[in-house]
Give the backbone structure.
Amino acid sequence: MSYVQKIKLRNTVVEILLILLSLIIILPLLLMIFGSFMNSTEVLRFSLRLPEKWLFSNYLTVYEVGGLGRAFMNGILITGVSSIVNILTSSAASFILARRETKWSSFLYLFFFMGLIAPMSIITTIRIVQWMGFYGSITSVIFIYSALNTAFSVFLYSGFIRSIPRALDEVAFLEGAGTIGIFLRIITPLIIPVNATVAIMVFMSVWNDITIPLYFLTDSSTWTMPLSVYNFYGRYSRDWNLIFADLVMTSIPVLILYIFAQKYIVSGLTAGAVKG
Amino acid sequence: MKTTKSLYSYTLVWPALAIYTVFFVVPALIGFYYSFTDWRLDRLEISFVGWDNFKRIFTDDTLILAMKNTFIFAIATVIGKNVLGIALAVALNMKLKSRNFLRAIFYSPSILSVLVISIIFTPLLRTEGAVNGILSAIGLSSLNQAWLTDPSIVIWTIAGVSIWQHTGFQMAIYLAGLQSISKDYYEAATIDGAGSWKSFRYITLPLLLPAININLMLTLIGGLKVFSEVFVLTGGGPGNASQVVGTIILRTFGEGAWGLGTAINTLLFVAVTLISIPLLLFMRRKEVAE
């Protein structure tokens, strides 16, 4: 057998193995999707089959009973505002930290970097938010998410801004621009792809999270989708068709984002893989 | 020419620094103080109690078990996600017809909420559930387990679910790393007569080191901070068999034992920092050497 044939044979074997392996991922997800259209007795078999009758009405029931409309809007508000706050503050800070090469700026960079490692102190954060008088509010959660994501964003922005030549800043400066002018006119247009990456990373992690809402959103009118789903799961533990429909609905926004914004996710991952 | 000082004013650092400090750093710092107090929900006065909270942590069987479980989970997921992640990445970096499709499939669970995956797996992992069903169907009924109700294996099951969900994320980082390795190295190695294993050992692994480092750090730190998987799959049960540090903190918070809860959090902070920072420095050095 020639070398080329050998490689071809090997690739075919690998491909068959991988396709079999991928069933381990696909089957549980299909079980959820098919189950979400079944009636409440059919779904309890938890076996992979097409629904006898496709009940689209499950989704309507869950939407109304589970209060998903409100939870969706809360989620959009929290993820949207914390992404924007995070992008604005982190990119501005990284610009300065990347340009100044002093002891102070490297100290500040490390100070931010610690946030990638250290776990947050939840109970004392609640205390701080209580002192400030907005415990239980959506505002508190927005600030907390902005703080939690600062480390990662600064890491990503700093790496990118260092690759932008300083000469560009100096030209703008000679034309009379100040710090903010340089940042807005030179840096901001060049870091738009990084903004997209940060926005998507923050959106996905915040949208999917249940820890922070569990501790900080005490009133059900402020709940996000995963927390509403968790609560629904506790109350309707017999109606697995509705639970599955609820899970699918929670996943749709991130799936859509993933499909349309894949390239920005990949560039975020590449930054991590290559820079280390 | 104006100096760097006035051109790059620290004013732009302030907003990020303020939010990060107030909502992340200050809570961590006052956490150190509260760890040494008897801070409770039902008491107005807080007094200093020295090392009492920490003594209690290391004498309470449930708390010790929670710490042990956290380490088991962290180590099991670090190994599982990285070994499988590298294997998948290497396989999906070959010229396969369905490779884009397969990459998307393996990556897809990691974009979903841990809550979603944990709820899907709850019925599948029951004694009469699909996991045991499939094992029996392929003749491996001896491997059937009470996955979520047997105290001796429950934490491993939860680690397994986490590996199932997140290996694709690690795979994607490894793939990005693999694609940055020039094909020339492999061609040269083939000409010199190196087989697949030798190419992997002497070309792929060393050049993949930055990706390995970031993945080890991400999985280790994420593993030590585990909460949602355990919270949704078992709530720490059966009994306290699958408690981890994250779920214990929730419980002490609910019971109003805030001083104790903060002490546990402080311990986690110290553990994560003491483990990751030396590891980070060590890896940095190694990376430069390679």
Observations:
- Residues 25-59 of chain B form one domain.
- The CA atoms of residues 39 and 259 of chain B lie 4 Å apart.
- Chain B has 14 helices and no strands.
- The radius of gyration of chain B is 24 Å.
